[in-house]
Design brief:
The chain is mainly α and 434 residues long. It contains 20 helices and no strands. The radius of gyration is 27 Å and the shape is globular.
């Protein structure tokens, strides 16, 4: 006979409840109204955001776990710094990997054959028009995934997920940082031609000719079979390098070394930071997809922390995003497939930062058993000094784990809410164009 508790759990898993999950899916659908009923969208979205903000502020004083949030704050801040450094490294590499070969190469390079693109084109001819329109629709984009995670993090105030919320956020950003660094090492290792041949010419003003490094080690051997064969025999770059124009060196002061990687043109930018901001995305940062990494990490966080029927819908959104990345030729199929399993694996290995399974309770149990064993042994030996020492140790540990002062907690709660709201606004502003 089935356990009635397991039955109720399985029912709860599929039956919608009007909580965080319903609000999150409702937000995505409401935002899609901008493509269907713009007037409704313009009225509904501000009301939704105001309602969520007010609910969050009103709930803040009644949250009972600010002490655990405060303990998680250093890890959270360190994760932010780590992720920002990873994003900077990635941004420098995104331009560098396109600039190194010059625009002439990008104009002539053919996209790689992609069976995923072929399958989607064939499905356009066989599936009903309504299904094809749904597959083409921009149901969910990058800033939606980020918003969904923000909603998940704030849901800790409503006891929807296990505290601390900053622990979950720290895990998300730390995993994102690792994923971005691994992605950067991957796409700079082998330069793939963009699936959109016009991409580099439209987005960048890099020189037409290749970087001196590519002039010597790539250009003489890129298509000549005999030259490649001899290169393999000699295992040394033997060919003469053709004459090319000199590299432009800007006046960036101490950051001039970056010109060797970013390859600016005359009058393009007064400093390296403005140069990075000018491009609206990359062209050859393909393996693996950064957008899909964000989508998968959001789905993994949501599945572990919240679960339920909304997790299933979120994974459907992830698959929809993947086919759209391929359909619109932002990425090759392999880029999206690799991003999915890398995101899943990375999330699995960072459970030490935050986990739904309470690992700390298991550690406390083990520690309690150790103390209990010591006390019993000391009592049997009538060693009162040892018993007293153990009790003092327990008392000290208890004092260390006591909460912070009320004023400290109130101040931290105010700063945390304001800081998080600020980060959300900045992140959504920077990713509003997808």
């Amino acid at each position: 006979m089935a356990d009635p508790k397991s039955k109720s759990k399985s029912k709860r898993w599929f039956v919608p409840s009007f909580g965080t999950g319903t609000v999150a899916i409702g937000y995505v659908l409401a935002d899609y109204l901008q493509h269907v009923y713009p007037t409704w969208h313009d009225r509904l979205m501000p009301a939704l955001w105001i309602t969520l903000a007010v609910a969050t502020v009103l709930r803040t004083p009644f949250y009972r776990h600010w002490s655990s949030e405060l303990r998680a704050a250093p890890t959270f801040l360190a994760s932010i710094v780590f992720m920002l450094l990873a994003l900077l490294f990635e941004a420098l590499s995104v331009r560098s990997v396109t600039a190194v070969l010059g625009l002439d190469w990008h104009r002539s390079a053919d996209p790689l054959p992609d069976t995923g693109q072929w399958i989607l084109l064939s499905l356009n001819e066989t599936l009903p028009e309504s299904i094809v329109s749904l597959l083409r629709a921009h149901l969910i984009t990058l800033h939606h995934y980020l918003t969904l995670f923000v909603m998940l993090g704030f849901s800790v105030l409503f006891n929807s997920i296990k505290p601390p919320g900053l622990g979950l956020a720290a895990r998300y950003m730390f995993t994102m940082g690792i994923g971005r660094i691994l992605r950067t090492f991957t796409f700079v290792s082998t330069i793939l031609p963009s699936a959109r041949p016009w991409c580099a010419v439209v987005r960048y003003r890099v020189p037409n000719f290749p970087h001196p490094f590519a002039q010597k080690y790539y250009e003489p051997y890129k298509s000549d079979q005999n030259a490649i064969s001899r290169l393999l025999q000699l295992d040394s770059a033997y060919a003469d390098v053709k004459e090319y124009p000199e590299e432009f060196i800007p006046d960036w002061g101490k950051m001039n070394f970056l010109a060797n990687f970013l390859r600016p043109n005359i009058g393009e930018a007064s400093n390296w930071y403005n140069l990075l901001k000018k491009a609206s995305g990359g062209c050859n940062d393909l393996m693996y997809s950064g957008h899909m990494l964000v989508a998968v990490l959001t789905a993994m966080a949501w599945t572990e922390a919240y679960g339920g029927w909304t997790s299933v819908i979120l994974w459907i959104f992830v698959l929809h995003s993947a086919q759209r990345e391929i359909r619109e030729r932002h990425h090759y199929t392999v880029d999206c497939i690799v991003a999915i399993y890398v995101g899943i694996l990375l999330w699995r290995i960072t459970a030490f930062i935050w986990s739904k399974n309470d690992i700390s309770k298991d550690k406390m149990k083990a520690k309690f058993e150790q103390v209990r064993t010591k006390l019993l042994r000391s009592a049997k030996d009538s060693d009162l000094d040892k018993v007293s020492e153990i009790l003092e140790e327990i008392e000290r540990a208890g004092k260390e784990k006591e909460g912070f002062s009320r004023n400290t907690v109130i101040l931290f709660a105010f700063v945390a809410i304001c800081f998080t709201f600020g980060c959300v606004i900045v992140a959504l502003t920077l990713t509003s164009d997808g």
